[in-house]
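User: Hi! Is it possible to get a structure for several chains at once, not just one? Here's what I have:
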Amino acid sequence: DIQMTQSPSSLSASVKDRVTITCRASQDINNYLAWYQQKPGKVPKLLIYSASTLQSGVPSRFSGSGSGTYFTLTISSLQPEDVATYYCQKYNTAPLTFGPGTKVDIK
Amino acid sequence: EVQLLESGGDLVQPGGSLTLSCAVSGFTFNNYAMSWVRQAPGKGLEWVSVISTGGLSTYYADSVKGRFTISRENSKNTLYLQMNSLRAEDTAVYYCAKSAITGTARVYFDYWGQGTLVTVSS
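Assistant: Yes, the chains can be modeled jointly so their relative placement is included. Here is the combined structure:
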C-alpha cells in the first residue's frame, strides 16, 4: 500500500507569515490528493482537491500544488483562525490513506 | 442542506460487536460513494472503509478487514458499519463522510457527520 507522510508534524508561526506544509506519497498518485483542515473539537473540512483546486468557500490564502509523489499546502498569510491540524489524503485507489497531520499554531 | 447524522456509538467489551448508522439528507444518497473515517482520542484521521453508490464495491483498511462490514440502504438514505471482534485499538470517534463527486471510487470527502464515539474496554 502507498504510505503518506507529512512534514513538519507541527509548526508555530506568526500572524501574516507564509506557511508551507509538505505531503509525500511513497508511490505516484498523479494529482489524486486532497487537503483537510480540522480545528480543535471540530469536524474535518475539505480545503483542496485534485492537489491544487480550491474547494468552494475556502479563503484564497490557501493554495495547493504538486503531482506524483510530492505535494504542498501553502497558507500565504497565516490568520488566527487557521490554527488547526492539516491532513492530506490520497484517493487514486483504496486504501484512501490520510497523512499523519501537521498541527499549526500561532507564535 | 446536507446533513449526516451518525448513531450507535457505545461502550463495548473487547471481542464484542456494534453497528453504527449514518442517516443522511439534503442530497441524492444513491449518487455518491460513502465512507467511514475514524479518529482515536488525540490522534489523526484513519480511513476505515468505502462503499460504492450501489453497494456492490467495498474496500477496507487492513486494520479492520475481516472484522468490519460497510453497507448501505439507499431506500432509507442510511449508511452502516457492522463492527465485530472489537479491540481496544478500535476506540475512536467514527465519522461518516460523503464523497465529493458522483459515481466514482476515487473518493475525497466534502461533508462529514459530527461523529459517534465507540469505546472498547472491559
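Chain B has a mean pLDDT of 96. The interface with chain A takes residues 35, 37, 44-47, 50, 59-62, 95, 100, 105-110, 112-115 of chain B (CB under 8 Å).

User: Great, thank you!
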